[in-house]
Amino acid sequence: MSTTGFAVVGMGRAGKARLRSLEQLDNISPLQSYSRRIHSDYTWKGILLNKKVEAVIISTETSTHYSFVKEALLAQKHVAVEYPLVNSLAQAVELYQLAEQQNKILHCEFIGLLTNAHKNRRELSQEADITGIQCIFRGGINPWIEKEIKAKRYGQLSIGRLQAIWDFCGPLTVMTARVDEQDRGYVMNVVLSDANKREIFLTESRFSEQKRNTEWRFFDRVIGEVFPQSESAPSKLFLEDSVCFLRQIEEDEEGYVSKEDVLGVLHLAEEIKILMGGLRSVH
Length: 283
What we know:
The chain is of the alpha/beta class.
């Protein structure tokens, strides 16, 4: 049996879950990990130079993704990265072009799309009598999110919901976007439209110590059905995503999140920022 050498970068909660998922696979060897904050048996430079390490999974904060992904691709490694790939459309285009030039896989993970709850919502969204969708998200504010708020990257903070909506009914167009900035947080309202001219309403609010929750509403001519956010076991989903990444490498299978989808959602996020007056036009 052939094996593929893997390395995991970042030993936070997601990185550790990644490492555990890879340890369950028989065809992974060697398996290394690197952390910038705790002692690691391996260095980033050593991983890049190790020809037996063919693939790298990046599980660090988004602001570091661009440099880690670029360095790994230049070192002839396949790369998987926790979503979002990056916060910049231009950087994402550059990285996908580099992956193509290097003939390597660049896989952007989004395990939320693998949950049964998401699959059920996607199936419902395809029904002919569904005339509109609403997503209501509530969340708190941590130091990383606070930096994004100060930079007015509200669209980038909503990428998880935008990616889910795109998976339901993309491609999408931004119709309107506005934000109500308050002392301890904000409320953002975005209206999107799909190819069938259905309206999709996205409402996001973030305030200090607010509990995280997501509701989905699907509207027909009479009623709307409410689906609270459901949590799935992340370990199982990380394992499924790792297997998907490995199959892309070894069997040339298609990933469940395409380059076009990732770029399309990043374009939406930047369009939202434009409408809020925080960015020049996207070309």
